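Box S2. Input/output pair 1.
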Amino acid sequence: MNLDNKEKHNKWLNQVVEPILEPNLPIIDPHHHLWPAPWGRNKIPVESHYLLEDLWNDTQSGHNIVKTVFVECGQGYYLEGPESFKPVGETDFVLGIANEARQDTSKAQISGIVGHADLMLGKSVKEVLEAHREKGEGLFKGIRHTAGWDQNEEVRNSHSEPIRHIYLDDNFQKGIEQLENLDMSFDAWHYHHQIKELTLLAKTFPNLIIIHNHFGGPLGIGPYEGNRDKIFNQWKEDIFELSGCKNVVSKLGGMAMPINGWDWHKRTKPATSNELVLAQKEYYLHVIDSFGAERCLFESNFPVDKQSISYPVLWNAFKKLTSDFSEKDKNQLFYETAARVYKI
């Protein structure tokens, strides 16, 4: 494996260095990935190769990150056995890294695992969920079955290859029912035009804790390029409607990805915290106003967002966004909501 691209990318990120704001504020990062190879089940570039050393390099870069939650990304699947149980291998893989991290408790600990199970299996997914729980040794919290679907070929659909209108599918909902019965959470990732369908799902399963990922994925590429204002206005309405479902909480982050169309990853220098705040402040504040701080949690989405911005700069942006918030609201946004939702 040639790591030249990774080293070049880190050098590119290091062009922007900022003083760390509020370095003592305790933080749970509730959304990061781990990638053991440059090209895995979910194909990624070499600069995204990300294991414990990489995670700690980021979490130790100035902010007080004390705990993290791993979210599925199609890595470490079992190569043998029934297809439906292969994703349990990812939980096994992450547990090994979490155990490795326990050898140095002065650094951020992986305190939760969100895996994948094919909810299209319907009722039979129960056995897979139970296998995840057993393998996770107390760290397994729930699953994410990515739902991002778009009819345009320029927008890559989610790695789980979802069908159109998956949230409304009978088999999928039977799988969701098993998740709810086992008191596990559901991380929801999709695109902006699918938010209304998640709202219908949330209303159908009011006892299921749903964690809305990445603002619902406002797209800015392909046919959506140049339509940001129109998309934003509809997105605002859809987010407000979703916030009426009290079983839904919202992750704040994951909008520095190339699909969002800001194109920071194409520049000679990465984004600064001021640039992120200026470009995306209205998104963050609308979600917080709609859901309340007690139902919102900041996330890094690393190393995916690392394509556009460094870890310390990203968390500086979050702190600038909340500079005039009360201490209570800050603690909820940076720590307490994540601790409650993921039971860590």
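Box S3. Input/output pair 2.
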Amino acid sequence: MAVLSYNDILPKTVITYNGEPYEVLSSHIFRMQMRKPVNQTKLRALVSGKVIEISFHQNETAEEAEVGALEARYLYTNRGESWFAQVDNPKNRFSFPEEAVHDRVRWLAPNALADVLTYEEKPLTIAIPVKVDLAVTDAPPSIKGNTATGGTKVVTVATGAKVDAPLFIRAGDVIRINTETGEYVERVEKA
């Protein structure tokens, strides 16, 4: 376990805080006049997804969390649980409460691969690529004349998620989506 001094608690690191693993989302080190420097951080609990703001003072440290990863295949979501199976050991199945992983699972088609972060050998949460390519299953038709303004319409992708996409997108197109913002990036394949 690495011990991080207050100024090493930087974005993308995972620390143990109050006995739980937290991902550092942002950090800002500043010094008020005549006072010691402080690192103001935003932390996201890897288990619950809750975001908290914590200030670490110059004399404080945090332990880097030992977070592992395993590759898993997304199976399905049912009755509030999202189920996965470990790729190299399919009998190892586990689930997460749907509300804890919904923002990521909605971009996964059944059998899609995801990285599962583990903490003390227990599955914690899932990590998916920042960009995914999904087929459009349903798109309302464009009305002639409204395409020049570059408007958008809501389309449904293969996972059932809804995305704002340009008017020229049709059912059958494959589009790239930013999974962090839920926004359309580009058309990858035309139907």
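Caption for Box S3: Helices lie at 98-105. The two ends are 51 Å apart (CA to CA).
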